[in-house]
Amino acid sequence: MNANNSLPVTTVISHKVKPGHIKDFEGWHKKILAKASVYDGFQNIMIIKPDDPANLEYVVIVQWSNYENLKKWQQSDDLKQMIKESEEFTLSVKQLHEQSGMEIWFDWPKDAKRLSKPLFYKQTLITIMVVLPLIFTVGAISRPLLSGFNLPFEIEIVINVIIISPLITLIMPKVTKLLYPWLYSKRKEQN
């Protein structure tokens, strides 16, 4: 992956669990989450449980602050030990997707069967609902504070650009998680 090390990174992993070992996997998942969460840059984890009892494939979506922190976790002895532990109850573990940048807000892997990219209008609505209030709020706070300094208009642009970092790393992942059922609701198949 050709990644900019300063951008957040999302990785998607598929775990196929052996029949009769769901409790083993879910207990293991809690342990690996506890280990990963102490590593620098760990941000969030979501798990999508299988809806087909004949195909026990769990999809795990993990967000890191940047590519370097993700790599440290991927190369850690903790992860190697946890993967080895999982061999008792998994048929396979494979990385489906790794992505950095703004597309992590909405763009999920095409080969994860139960996930489809949210409709464009849903992405647009959420982005507008989050970005516009942020811009107006920061502007309303910064204008009175900076008006006495007679700063050029470009400073306002810089202030709005500063909004982007917390938007990408803190706000949009939480909003996406909160609105996940609506964003990723299954589309009706058209015949």
Description:
The structure is a single chain. By secondary structure, the protein is α+β, with helices and mostly antiparallel strands. It folds into two domains: 9-111, Alpha-Beta Plaits, CATH 3.30.70; 120-177, no CATH class. Helices cover 47% and strands 18% of the residues. The protein has helices at 22-36, 67-74, 77-86, 120-146, 153-162, 164-178, 180-183; strands at 9-17, 42-48, 57-64, 90-100. Strands 2-3-1-4 form a four-stranded antiparallel sheet, sandwiched between helices. 15% of the residues are buried. The model is unreliable at 107-113 (pLDDT under 50).
Structure classification: alpha+beta
| CATH classification class of the largest domain | Alpha Beta
In the CATH hierarchy, what is the architecture of the largest domain at level 2? 2-Layer Sandwich
> How many distinct folded domains?
2
Question: In percent, how helical is the residue content?
Answer: 40-55%
Task: Quickly count the helices.
Answer: 7
CA-atom Rg in angstroms: 20 Å
Spans where pLDDT lies below 50 across 5 or more residues: 107-113
Strand order of the largest sheet: 2-3-1-4
**CATH topology heading of the largest domain:** Alpha-Beta Plaits
Principal-axes shape call: elongated
Largest sheet: 4 strands, antiparallel
Strand content: 15-25%
Whole-Å distance between the termini? 37 Å
Tally of DSSP β-strands? 4
Mean pLDDT: 75
How do the SSEs run, as a string of H and E? Answer: EHEEHHEHHHH
